[in-house]
Design brief:
Elements: E1 5-8, H1 23-34, E2 38-42, H2 51-57, E3 62-64, E4 69-72, E5 75-79, H3 84-96, E6 101-104, E7 109-111, H4 118-125, E8 134-135, E9 147-151, E10 167-173, E11 176-181, H5 186-197, E12 204-208, H6 214-219, E13 222-225, H7 231-234, E14 239-240, H8 248-255
Parallel strand pairs: 1-2, 1-12, 2-3, 7-8, 12-13, 13-14
Antiparallel strand pairs: 3-4, 4-5, 6-7, 6-9, 9-11, 10-11
């Protein structure tokens, strides 16, 4: 079998709705690696949010922060931090609207509010990482910030849209949005990986379920949307597999011929 590279989203793709890794998915990853394929992760999460998962699966190539922090075989090969001036302007706007902000680099995250905010607690705890941001409103100053989080109810983000040329907003939770540099995406991060690994497009695969997977599923030659994905996401994929909770990952790998 020709060797391929397969990129997996985490939440709703590798991990089930309750954030557990199915044994079937773990065995599938082990089989792919045993067959000589390159297994990678492409996620909106920070690197520190899935270190244990990478170690459990033996994965050392990954695209974090929706393409802003890219590692190939343990080596950082590409970073795309947010513009500090734009972060400052955005933060001032968010404070006026009463919306908390969290700043994230490759090692940790800090909030611009001191109190335990319900939206921060609700959204970040849904990732089941058992880690909350501590307080440092100036954390973004003088260091590379690869992603920020805005906390607001659905629809409230419209006051920020089209106000910042350098910022792109992607909702990942009913009360939270990712903020990444404009033009940044998982697809861009994967392209950086391909510059290093050189797999032909027909040997590139991607699995995802979220709105932050749209570019990746649109551009990767063999793209698979999970059964739990929204209809708009499924439309962008070449294949649609079963729900993540119904061994959708394994089914999808069988659909595209990577597993028997």
């Amino acid at each position: 079998m020709e060797k391929s590279v397969i990129f997996f989203d985490i939440d709703g793709t590798l991990l089930t709705e309750d954030k557990s890794l199915p044994e079937s998915a773990k065995k599938a990853i082990q089989q792919l690696k045993s067959d000589g394929h390159e297994v990678a992760i492409a996620t909106g999460r920070a690197p520190f949010m899935y270190k244990e998962l990478r170690e459990e699966l033996g994965i050392d190539t990954y695209v974090s922060y929706n393409g802003q922090y890219v590692v190939v075989k343990g080596e950082v090969i590409y970073t795309n931090p947010l513009n500090e001036i734009e972060i400052e302007k955005f933060t001032e706007d968010a404070v006026k609207h009463g919306h908390p902000v969290v700043y994230m680099n490759h090692e940790e995250m800090k909030a611009n509010v001191t109190e335990e905010h319900a939206y921060i607690q609700e959204s970040i705890s849904s990732l089941k990482i058992y880690q909350m941001p501590s307080h440092d409103p100036e954390f973004y100053k003088g260091r590379d910030i690869y992603q920020a989080l805005l906390f607001c109810a659905e629809g409230e983000e419209t006051v920020y849209e089209n106000q910042y040329d350098g910022l792109h907003f992607v909702r990942w939770h009913p009360v939270s949005l990712d903020i990444v540099p404009s033009g940044g995406s998982k697809a861009v991060g994967i392209a950086k990986v391909m510059e290093k690994l050189n797999y032909p497009k027909e040997r590139q695969y991607a699995f995802g379920d979220g709105f932050n997977d749209v570019e990746m599923l649109s551009e990767i030659h063999n793209s698979v949307a999970m059964g739990n994905a929204e209809p708009e996401v499924k439309e962008k994929a070449k294949y649609v597999t079963k729900h993540v909770d119904d061994d959708g990952l394994v089914h999808g790998l069988q659909m595209v011929g990577l597993l028997k």
